[in-house]
User: Fold this.
Amino acid sequence: MLEMLARFGRTGLGAFERLGRGHLLFLQILSGITSLLPRPGLLVAQIHSIGVRTVTIIVVSGLFVGMVLGLQGYYVLSQFAAEQSLGVMVAASLVRELGPVVTALLFAGRAGSALTAEIGLMKATEQLSGLEMMAVDPVHRILTPRFYAGFISMPILALLFSAMGVIGGYFVSVGLLGVDEGAFWSQMQNKIEWSGDVLNGIIKSLVFGVICTWIALFQGYDTVPTSAGVSSSTTRTVVHSALAVLVLDFVLTALMFGD
Amino acid sequence: MTTRQLEITVGAFMAAGLVALFFLAMQVSNLASMTTSNGYEVTARFNNIGGLKVRSPVSMAGVRIGRVVGISYDQKSYEALVTMLIDPTYDKIPADSIAKIYTSGLLGEQYVGLDPGGSLENLKQGSDIQITQSALVLEEIIGQFLFSKAEENAKAADSAP
Assistant:
């Protein structure tokens, strides 16, 4: 009985300790901006490997998500003879929710797991300790550029996703289902607000960018330096990121759109 | 991959992000059609504004000429005070125009429609529209209908014997 209680306490303490380490690492990463600014080349290289190489999956999934939204929305809306609102439905769901959320989930799977594996392996092969031996702060040199690259890439990716989704929805509804083109765009422009919808979507994706990259970097940096440790850290990155994104999305939506 | 190629792809990536942002701003959202707050404000008092909201359109002969920028409740006259911002290009609206609240379609959103009057003076900044007609509230119409039905029945019952 006491043993069980002790184990429970140990788990709780361990969780809080990890949380604390995570926040300390976060502050350390943020403060690394001073050493990053004189060397923008590091940031460019990381934006390439985190952002640019995620574009393909984002663009293709955005296009298809928009097309599916168009198809499914048409079946419901045509029952009420409200096909003209299809544009509003596609654009609102993409810009407000699906754009930031699906992008963050794909980002966690494509870029976050790669980040964790890369840093975990650096730790396992003692490259991080090597840097420290050379009096180079591994957090500032390795983690900070990756963090800011993720922070910059995520909103761009989410915007690409939303834009491609709207174009996909346009193809399906106007090209395939014969919704009137003028009504499709004009209803959309009437209902979608710049500050209320588009800007809030960007804010969401910024938050998700911070969370996903932070989780990925922390899992990599905090990994048990063995093959099994790196593998379980990579899994945890994807799971934790997905959970954090979905829960935070609910909180942010309640704050932004619940009036 | 050389540094130059790297920089080019990252530049293209960021440019694509800007293009997407521009597309969302201009084609998808209402930023392009959002009138900046120039124009002149007129007010109108209604007994009941129904479901009218801030940003609802103000139209004349079906053409959108402005939008509602403020709705408040006047505690002295027990009426709703609606402030409308009219586009400066439409500066020849007679001062005795009638403001009515219409519903677009059966279940659509509500908007303010202006019917032109005959006055030679025009509406200008700060003027108040005197003649207004409130929104049709569905419950009231149904209530009136039931009431008149009941009256008819009562008359029929009186004259029957």
Observations:
- Residues 36-140 of chain B form one domain.
- The mean pLDDT of chain B is 84.
- The first strand of chain B starts at residue 40 and ends at 46.
